[in-house]
Amino acid sequence: IRLGLIAPGKNAPEALALDVANDLLGIGPASRLNAGASGPTLRAYSTLALNREAGMLVLATAAANDSVPGMIDRMRGELRRFVAEPPSEGEVAASRWTLGRSFPIDNEGLISQVGQWLSAAFHGLSDDFADRHPERIQAVTVEDVRGVAARWFDADHAELVVVGAASALEP
Q1: What pTM value is reported for the model?
Q2: Gap between the Cα atoms of 47 and 114, Å rounded
Q3: CB 78 within 8 A of CB 57
Q4: I need a surface site. Which of 55, 100, 121, 137 has the fewest CB within 10 A?
Q5: What is the pLDDT along the chain (171 residues), one digit of tens a residue?
Q6: CA–CA separation, 2 vs 162, rounded Å?
């Protein structure tokens, strides 16, 4: 099961706030999709792919055929809850800390650094993108995260893809 939402490009002003929102929504065991309020864990995750002109946020999980409609409702529900009950300052601060400190570790090697420089050039980002990324992540505010969630996390306009036997999935 995949729910897809359009997102802005990597050089958009709200890209870093979307990184933080995605971290809180569906990355790690404490994310909203994994520790949701709608019952036991969804065992779902989200990925954010920001490209030059546009990007995509994808929520993903797997379920038995008879559970697919309920799982779709729960995933949409967590998107709606993220907007209606946005993350607290503490949640955003924890995400900033994790993202800001993991970036340099992920890019310690020369090959990783070259990849970051090439990616920044391709996406039209500044030459100091990789050097200043942790600092820029730390500048993301709770209001920034709430704003991107309100703008981009529209559960009613998410595109849905379900793979399985059509005869078992049709209502």
Answers
A1: 0.84
A2: 23
A3: no
A4: 121
A5: 999 999 999 888 999 999 999 999 988 767 888 875 555 566 788 989 888 889 999 999 988 888 898 889 989 999 999 999 999 999 999 999 888 776 555 556 777 766 766 777 777 777 777 667 788 899 999 999 999 999 999 999 999 999 988 887 776
A6: 6
